[in-house]
Amino acid sequence: MNRMTLQEKIGQMVQIERTVASPQVMKNYFIGSVLSGGGSSPGVNASAQEWIKMVNQFQRDALSTRLGIPMIYGIDSVHGHSTVYNATIFPHNIGLGATRDPELVKRIGAATALEARATGIPYLFAPCVAVCRDPRWGRCYESYSEDPEVVSSMTEIVTGLQGDIPSTSPKGVPYVGGKTKVAACAKHYVGDGGTVNGINENNTILSRHGLLSIHMPGYSASIIKGVSTVMVSYSSWNGDKMHGNRDLITGFLKGTLRFRGFVITDWEGLDRMTSPRHANYSNSILRGINAGIDMIMVPMKYKEFIDDLNQLVTNHEIPMSRIDDAVRRVLRVKFTMGLFENPLADETLVNHLGSHEHRELAREAVRKSLVLLKNTNSMLPLPKKGSKILVAGAHADNLGYQCGGWTIQWQGQSGNNATVGTTIMDAIMNTVDKQSSQVVYQENPDTKYLQSEGFSYAIVVVGELPYAETEGNNMNLTIPEPGPTMIKNVCRAVKCVVVVVSGRPVVIEPYLKWIDGLVAAWLPGTEGQGVADVLFGNYGFSGKLSRTWFRSVDQLPMNVGDEHYDPLFPFGFGLTTEPTDDSN
Ligand code: BGC
Ligand code: BGC
User: Fold this and answer.
1) Confidence of residue 39 (pLDDT cuts 50, 70, 90)
2) Which of 316, 381, 414, 512 has the fewest CB atoms within 10 Å around its CB?
3) Where is coiled-coil annotated (predicted)?
4) Does 37 sit in the ligand 2 pocket, CB within 6 Å?
5) Dihedral angle, C-alpha 35, 38, 43, 47, nearest 10 °
6) Does the beta carbon of 91 lie inside 6 Å of ligand 1?
7) Which residues contact 360 (CB under 8 A, 6 or more apart)?
């Protein structure tokens, strides 16, 4: 650090988006970090090799500067390496919460780290340790649970992503165990899941005790496990923007919790400290950096940011000691993870991307994430033999829908071509006895058809359409049509199982009377086979609700432990079934 100029130090604090990065920009501004924003890839269906080529090029640019400090490339791999074509897509966090299996989640972390490294990427903006207290929040599915204890237990993923911290490591020091591991990021600090009415990026109104006991445990747990970075939340706490909260960032996180990694802003986090955005930007930079933020996900207008920060330091409004603290933290993470020794991708890892082993792991996670909510006359597990089976609903044969947001694209997508995987429909076909059973898929069958065909039973797969962040805020939480009408039509005509594909509990009580079997499948990801494995009894149901399932939205917010608690299905609920042998 003694050898670094102010320009070089500021560069270490800057993270830019790959679309504005170029050899000139990397070199002229000594850029310390590059990211892929949601859906930002080097090309449609880009291969691991193409990702490596891009990341390595930025790295070579960084290494060609005077001091040759490597840049660190970051991406949102929030349910597997989810921006990359052919990656294994695991269930979103809400489903992992339902497994109550931290050891499984650790293995998922290790697999995700390998897939990221397969594309040359060493830094992931995960895990999201939000404690979602209101399912109307558009990011509810990114939260493991409404319960801080479940969220804390799931921070085991940090040890999967980064490796197990040595027992001698002092508390708060970041740890990354080498070339097959990645730097993780606990986000979004703090209280992102507690905003009023679940409005994204809004205000969390809560006592200090409430904030510390509900929203902080996930950070304490992550820090004990050596998490390398923490991302600040767009949201406010009692009216104050978290990006300017010196007491919680410098005081609590770096002081009380002794966090020694680096603190990063959210995307345009400094811009969003004002309304309208980017008004009085220089002042937001001043507040954010003096609050204790170390790296700034600028990510587009880097020139303005660098000029403004330079001014603020030259004018002594930001002390040099603060810049040094930031740079020391960024370099500490880069040194710890071995980026100086191994700045370039290890091309021998490419075959880990979407490997069979990882897909089997995702399938296991899907099986364990399913929550059985109703099972009249033990309808489930379903017979594989001798049945005429109707499969209905748009979500039955739509890989994009079953993966949800943050999959290939930021907002997710519809259809089966965006990446590689098994739809629930494919999975059903693979599982039933081909000799004696017949499966018919009708996306939206009409009543006449239903009555004339003599089906043994129906599997109706309905749910939410993909979304991410603010686009997912939803004040009514109804299943979009034709879902509800189809449940009614099919389930009144045929014995039926309804599989709900959603990022959160949705309105279901009005239809419950017609439904024989009800399964919450959350957003299972690419391995739809896991759904059929359990529906047909190869494995039993074991998942437990990681959230309270409300009766009607006017009850919200309603969380386990509340004084007035009258849910449709309580937190922790989940019926179980035993696996059956293959003869049924
Ligand atoms: C980016 C995302 C980012 C979002 C923030 C999008 O344009 O692609 O990465 O999370 O903006 O609003
Ligand atoms: C999201 C973050 C994400 C970042 C980068 C933001 O909009 O809030 O969770 O890591 O974009 O894509």
Assistant:
1) very high
2) 316
3) none
4) yes
5) 80
6) no
7) none
Structure tokens at 122: 């060493």
Place of tokens 């076909």: 429
Give pLDDT tens digits for 236-283. Answer: 999 999 999 999 999 999 999 999 999 999 999 999 999 999 999 999
Q: What b/e sequence results for 539-561 when a residue is b if at least 16 CB atoms lie within 10 Å of its CB, and e otherwise? A: bbbbbbbbbbbbbebeebbbbbe
Identify the burial level of 476 via C-beta atoms within 10 angstroms of its C-beta, where 0-12 means exposed, 13-18 middle and 19 or more buried: exposed
d(CA 471, CA 407): 15
Task: With beta carbons less than 8 A apart as the criterion, state whether 257 and 211 touch.
Answer: no
For residues 508 and 503, what is the distance between their CA atoms, to the nearest angstrom? 14
Residue of 8, 469, 516, 533 marked active site: 469
The answer for residues whose C-beta is within 8 angstroms of residue 551's C-beta and 6 or more apart is 509, 566, 567, 568
- Quick check: CB of 410 below 6 Å from ligand 1? yes
Backbone angles phi, psi at 296, to 5 degrees: -115, 115
Q: Sign of the CA dihedral 131, 134, 135, 137?
A: negative
**Amino acid identity of 381?**
P
| Contact by Cβ (8 Å): 284, 242 | no
For ligand 1, the distance from its centroid to the CA atom of residue 36, given in whole angstroms, is 9
pLDDT the model gives residue 581: 75
Average pLDDT over residues 297-306: 98
What pLDDT band is residue 366 in, cutting at 50, 70 and 90?
very high
pLDDT of residue 583: 63
The neighbour count for residue 199, using CB atoms within 10 Å, is 16
pLDDT band at residue 584, thresholds of 50, 70 and 90? low
pLDDT (average), residues 298-321: 98
Helix, strand or coil, per DSSP, at residue 516:
coil
SS3 content of the chain, % helix, strand, coil (to 5): 40, 15, 45
Any catalytic annotation for residue 149?
no
Where do the H-state alpha helices sit in 292-396?
302-314, 320-336, 356-369
Nearest Cα neighbor of 479 from 393, 537, 557 is 393
The Cβ of residue 251 has, within 10 Å, a number of other Cβ atoms equal to 14
268, 223 contact by CB (below 8 A): no
CB distance 493 to 447 below 8 Å: yes
Task: Give residue 504's pLDDT.
Answer: 99
pLDDT of residue 360: 99
User: Would you say residue 43 has pLDDT above 80?
Assistant: yes
Query: SS3 string of 457-472?
Result: EEEEEEECCCCCHHHH
Residue 24: phi and psi, rounded to 5, are: -65, -50
Distance 187 CA to ligand 1 centre (A): 15
Could you tell me the two tokens for 82?
């989810």
pTM higher than the cut 0.85:
yes
